[in-house]
Amino acid sequence: FWMSPEMIKGEPHSYPTDIWSFTICMLELANKVPPNSSNRKRALWLTATQGIGDNFGLKKPGDWSEKFRSFVAAGATMDQTKRPTAEQLLEH
Hints:
Layout: H1 5-8, H2 16-31, H3 40-50, H4 66-75, H5 86-90
């Protein structure tokens, strides 16, 4: 559930994949389950093709602040070259 799109696709990857995994951990804490947790194969396919989905992956986005929603959205950017660094997220 925590694998980044680039890892699933077998593309070269580096530190941005850790940002993706951290973001999924944040979503798991917020939702009490990782995104698309009902089926592992489907979760892999959806992550590789669509990312975390609607509402930044939050089941109840209205329960969370705009800052948290934008933090999760930034960390779950599909394109690893556009995903923020850990330093950038610390300043978020």
